[in-house]
Amino acid sequence: MATPDPLVDGATVLLFMLVVTVAAFFFGKYLGRVYSGSLSRGIPGRIERGIYRLIGTNPDQESGWRQYAKDMLLFSAMGFTVLFFILLLQGLLPLNPMGVPGFSLHSTLNIAVSFVTNTNWQVYSGEMAAGYLAQMAGFTVQNFLSAAMGIAVAIAVMRGITRRNTNRIGNFWVDMTRTILYVLLPVAFVAALVLASQGVIQNLDPYAVVTGGGQGLIAMGPVASQEAIKELGTNGGGFFNANAAHPYENPNPFTNLFEIFLILLIPASLPFTFGEICGSRREGAAIYAVMLILFLLAFTGLYLAELGGNPALPAIGVSGVPMEGKEVRFGLGGTALYAVATTATSCGAVNAMHDSFTPLAGMVSLLLILLGEVVFGGAGSGFYTYLAFIVVAVFIAGLMIGRTPEYLGKKMERREITMAVVVILVPTLLVLLFTGISLLVPAGAGAMLNPGPHGLTELIYAYASMANNNGSAFAGFDATSPFFTLTGALVMAIGRFVPAVAMLALAGSLAEKKTVPAGPGTLPTAAPAFVLWMLFVIVIVGVLTFFPLLTMGPVAEHFLMIGGT
Fold first, then answer.
1. How far apart are CA 462 and CA 565, in angstroms?
2. Which of 538, 410, 429, 414 is nearest to 490 (CA)?
3. What is the pLDDT of residue 229?
4. What are residue 215's DSSP bridge partners?
């Protein structure tokens, strides 16, 4: 690998994020048209109406937040059930080139919950443990459905904030149908073609047997179709165990950037969609500005930490950036950008092993997850979590200036503040509680394959990733025991559905309110000052909450490293 050039890498990232910003602006406007129903005509419109007749829903009939939440939970339960039995019985199903049996009961539960919650935490080696049918009818289908669910909830929350004097926030089945039909399917189809053209494989061939110095297997399979929606839907589960570090998933620097673009596209577009729906593009731009600033700061921190490397290495004659656990074809810039993108969103796909990062670089990835993944965040889930932070931010600002907190003309009262706090604190409590429990039981200590602070970081990262539905992991952590598969399934389910229901409740409450005219004391939420205030609130909440864990984990490891230990 060539010696990294920080100026070239920095300029490349800035240019790349400019492209993302332009694409997000126009795609956000497109999403606004999708959910307004203005695209529901012609052949796509007939297909859409046919789907409504098939599932027995009236597209003109909207529901309140309770019914919307019930439909969401029911749909997720059905998806879980189908995926559970596909995985449990895959040894009896066709398209299984390795003849692999079904998963164990506790692993099946964990994996099914993982994909239904958009986490894609993997306690298995994809190419060796899952047949083609499980990969396609199980994982790929759920990649579409779980991503669509998150986006649908985000759109419902947008409606709740912008509507007034109504208890209706939309129709879950309509939002899901439009998301899949007009957003995920067409973009994923084009993305799969692009990836296939670059060498990402797409076939149903048996595994290739190679000889020479022994016998081995080269895995085949329908990779491009899964890779496209894996990134676009911020799912992250890889066809291969090596995920996007595998050349069949991510062959070259172009596909590396293209996959990062797919990861960011929908999360970066939703703030602009919100601007379209609320009738104020400045509000959407202000939200995007906060996300972009935090993203660039995170990239800078991770890049510089990796560029500095381990000071003990030059002393023994080793120069250059440490490349253990990384792919030389992507370089430091491509590796750092991918790591930040996948943890800033709730994607979880990786093109390097985060376990191999320097302590502070690993801390950046961990902190992005611990912040609730609002730095763009997951497909839909990141945006509605960010809105919870907005509610908290205007509440704190209201206390400081002695005025009832307001956002877009809606007063934020006890119910809204409570729901916002639930959204922010539930993943936090899950991480702290289950990290503490794991440290007290033998199964927890035995899973940390590295001693000291690094092992603690591995454990924190695991529960942070599951609670915030990210799915990436420090590679040195063994989460395959029943203790971790079962507690992990519980953490992923609570971390996904409790905040989603709480945000729907918040949206329903706001939809019933009337708007209050802006006055002299109204806080301008689209102003640069509020952008700075949001940056402060997000960072302070995240850093102060997890300061003890970060200190005992990556910070302690950093000082041990520079001390030569």
1. 25
2. 429
3. 96
4. 211
> Is the torsion defined by CA of 284, 38, 21, 255 positive or negative?
positive
Reading the block at residue 181, the tokens are: 């039909």
Q: DSSP state, 139?
A: I
Q: How far apart are CA 227 and CA 557, in angstroms?
A: 34
Nearest to 260 by CA among 333, 193, 189: 333
Cβ neighbourhood burial of 319 (10 Å; 0-12, 13-18, 19+): exposed
H/E run at residue 75: helix 65-88
Q: Which of 379, 396, 327, 421 is nearest to 534 (CA)?
A: 396
Distances in whole angstroms, Cα of residue 475 to Cα of each of 210, 243, 447, 483: 28, 12, 11, 18
* Positive or negative torsion for Cα 152, 154, 157, 163: negative
Give alpha helix (H) positions in 468-527.
Answer: 482-511
CA separation for the pair 502, 504 (Å, rounded): 5
Best CA proximity match to 357, nearest among 320, 332, 377, 329: 332
Q: DSSP E strands: which ranges in 90-237?
A: 208-211, 215-218
Q: What is the distance between the alpha carbons of residues 449 and 484, in angstroms, rounded to a whole number?
A: 14
Task: Indicate the SS3 state at residue 469.
Answer: coil
Q: Give the whole-angstrom CA distance, residue 299 versus residue 209.
A: 41
Is it the case that residue 433 has pLDDT exceeding 90?
yes
What is the per-residue pLDDT for 97? Answer: 80
Q: Kind and range of the H or E element at 145?
A: helix 141-162
H-type alpha helices, 222-252 = 223-232
DSSP class of residue 406 equals E
CA distance 278 to 408: 8
Rg (CA), the chain: 23
Distance CA 502, CA 505 (A): 5
CB-CB neighbours of 44 under 10 Å = 14
Q: CB atoms < 10 A from the CB of 540, how many?
A: 11
What is the per-residue pLDDT for 399? 82
pLDDT at 318 over 80: no
- Exposed e or buried b per residue across 233-251, where buried means at least 16 C-beta atoms within 10 angstroms of its C-beta: bbbbbbbbbbbbbbbbbbb
SS (H, E, C) 226-256: HHHHHHHCCCCCCCCCCHHHCCCCCCCHHHH
Segment among 103-117, 309-323, 375-389 with least mean pLDDT: 309-323
pLDDT(392) > 70: yes
Task: Tell me which DSSP letter residue 215 carries.
Answer: E
What does residue 293 show for φ and ψ, rounded to 5 degrees?
-60, -45
- Token readout for 222 is 């329908």
Taking the C-alpha atoms of residue 431 and residue 426, their distance in angstroms, rounded to an integer, is 9
**Which tokens go with 255?**
């596909």
8 A C-beta contact, residue 347 and residue 378: yes
Mean pLDDT of the residues in the chain:
91
Residue 460 token pair: 């924190």
> What pLDDT sits at residue 2?
59
Look at the pTM and tell me if it is higher than 0.85.
Answer: yes
C-alpha 437: how far from chain center: 25
The answer to whether residues 195 and 109 touch, using CB atoms and an 8 Å cutoff, is no
- Write the CB contacts of 46 (distance below 8 Å, at least 6 apart in sequence): none
